Amino acid sequence: PKIRVTDREGDEYLIEADVGISVMENLRDHDFGVEAICGGCCSCATCHVFVDDAWLPKLQPKSEAEAELVGETIFHKPNSRLSCQIRMTPDLDGLALTIAPEE
Ligand code: FES
Predict the structure, then answer these.
(1) How confident is the model over 41-65, as pLDDT tens digits?
(2) Is the reported ipTM for this assembly greater than 0.95?
(3) 1, exposed or middle or buried, with CB in 10 Å at 0-12, 13-18, 19+?
(4) How far apart are CA 46 and CA 39, in angstroms?
(5) Which of 51, 64, 66, 77 stands the most exposed, by the fewest C-beta atoms within 10 Å?
(6) What is the fold of 2-99?
(7) Residue 52: how many CB atoms within 10 A of its CB?
């Protein structure tokens, strides 16, 4: 599956994603500046992304921990997600997201 990524400069990329790992892990291997300092344990929010609205219903809902942490970020919006909390699956082929600004 592919992920359609808009980086912090507004440039769009189509990346080949691996399934069974998180979206964050797929993003981290590229040059998008996703630091993922906590390694995916939902405590740093440096994997913050904005998911295109059309894709939001296809994702597993936020856990309480994710909702709380992402809600504390400066740039959070209704379509904010922590990409380490989204597991990449084949049916997410075409998932479109934007990397959130650095805090
Ligand atoms: Fe730290 Fe997602 S990688 S919260």
Answers:
(1) 999 999 999 999 999 999 999 999 9
(2) yes
(3) middle
(4) 10
(5) 64
(6) Ubiquitin-like (UB roll) (3.10.20)
(7) 15
Rounded Cα gap, residues 39 and 44, in angstroms = 9
Ligand 1 neighbourhood includes 62 CB (under 6 angstroms): no
| Cβ atoms of residues 70 and 81 within 8 Å | yes
Q: Which atom of ligand 1 is closest in space to residue 43's alpha carbon? A: 4
**Predicted TM-score (pTM) above 0.95:** yes
Domain ranges (residues) in the chain: 2-99
Residue 36 Cα, ligand 1 centroid: separation in angstroms? 5
Q: Is the CB of 86 under 6 A from ligand 1?
A: no
> Distance, CA 7 to ligand 1 centroid (Å)?
17
Instruction: Report the residue among 29, 32, 41 best suited for mutation to probe ligand 1: largest number of ligand atoms under 8 A from its CB.
Output: 41
Residues forming a β-bridge with 87: 22
Cβ atoms of residues 39 and 27 within 8 Å: no
